[in-house]
Amino acid sequence: MNIRIDALKCINCMACEMACSFHRDDGFAFLSSSIMAYRAREKKDYFGVLLKEEENLITARPEGIDISRIGEEADPDKEADASAKPILLREGCDLCEEMEDYGPLCVVICPVDAITCEE
Ligand code: SF4
Ligand code: SF4
């Protein structure tokens, strides 16, 4: 199973971040979340989502998806790359593996179906 993110649907509500932090810590501590919503500083209504996997960082932007190998040099000129630094220190997504009855929390909670699962 993989997580898919459509940044064009995202409304930057940060519910996925809260849900993931709850999965990690049984509380709302954003610093433990494997998923992170970001907003470009200079652009209105430009939202993206970062997902840390075990080995890859997924950057979902309105223009499309970037997949970068963790450990490779980030591009400091890219808004999302600059935003990615905090998430690189966190645990990678485990697909909410022990929550079979509910499904991945970020998928369940996203109000606009911007996050989905694919087998
Ligand atoms: S699937 Fe679970 S662990 Fe992975 S980002 Fe979503 S809430 Fe976090
Ligand atoms: S829950 Fe959905 S709409 Fe909200 S920030 Fe996450 S991806 Fe975007």
TrEMBL record:
Transmembrane segments: none annotated. Residues 1-23 form the 4Fe-4S ferredoxin-type domain. PROSITE patterns: 4FE4S_FER_2 (PS51379). It comes from the Bacteria. Pfam families: Fer4_7. This is Ferredoxin.
